[in-house]
Amino acid sequence: MPKGDASQGEIKTPSCRFCHGSNGIAPRPDYPNLKGQQAEYLYNSMQAYLDGSRTGTMSAMMKAQLKNLSEQDIADIAEYYAQMK
Amino acid sequence: MPKGDASQGEIKTPSCRFCHGSNGIAPRPDYPNLKGQQAEYLYNSMQAYLDGSRTGTMSAMMKAQLKNLSEQDIADIAEYYAQMK
Questions:
Q1: Has residue B1 been placed in a domain?
Q2: What count of Cα atoms within 13 Å lies in the side-chain half-sphere of residue B9?
Q3: ipTM score over 0.85, yes or no
Q4: What residues in A contact B39, CB-CB < 8 Å?
Q5: Which residue of A30, A39, A70, B4 is 20 to 30 Å from B76, comparing CA positions?
Q6: B 11-40 residues with CB < 8 A to A
Q7: Domain containing residue A10
Q8: Could you list the pLDDT tens digit for every one of the 85 residues in chain B?
Q9: Would you list the DSSP string of A17-81?
Q10: What is the DSSP string of B48-69?
């Protein structure tokens, strides 16, 4: 996992906010809160959507959201949410 | 998803605590915090380990932890963590 930059992550999260909330608290009980979540877990989860090890509900949508992001982008986003208070 | 009972969930979480913390904050950055997470998301995630739609890192371990739990048990555990402050 590359070292994430939270300030860069913030710039890269507009599409995340629709479902995970602008404050990292999801507006629906079937979407996860991301605020304060562990960075490496978030990074691994996003990679799992991309590499096909997470399938089922939401996975096609998540893969579509993530497919144009680099590993650095994903690390930045993970760090942004991990640092959110 | 059955309606969860947080007080029942608390009784059913001893094995969860080793990795997710007794306060729902994971001691390692590759394990997710569960404190205050959305109940339905937690329920769906546990079911995804059981039904094989989550594979990859940790999935075999998670499936082993969950395989003897009923849908009600899983709903109770999800509600317990969702209500944790």
A1: no
A2: 25
A3: yes
A4: 29
A5: A39
A6: 26, 28-33, 36-40
A7: 6-83
A8: 999 999 999 999 999 999 999 999 999 999 999 999 999 999 999 999 999 999 988 999 999 999 999 999 999 999 999 999 9
A9: HHHH-TTS--SSTTS---TT--HHHHHHHHHHHHHTSB-STTHHHHHHHHTT--HHHHHHHHHHH
A10: HHHHTSB-STTHHHHHHHHTT-
A1 part of a folded domain: no
Residue corresponding to tokens 């995340």: A16
Is B51 within 8 Å of chain A by CB?
yes
Chain A positions touching B30 (Cβ under 8 A) are 38, 40-41, 44
Residue A22 lies in a domain: yes
The CATH number of residue A34's host domain is: 1.10.760.10
Instruction: Report the residue from B28, B38, B51 with minimal CB separation from A26.
Output: B38
Count of domains observed in chain B: 1
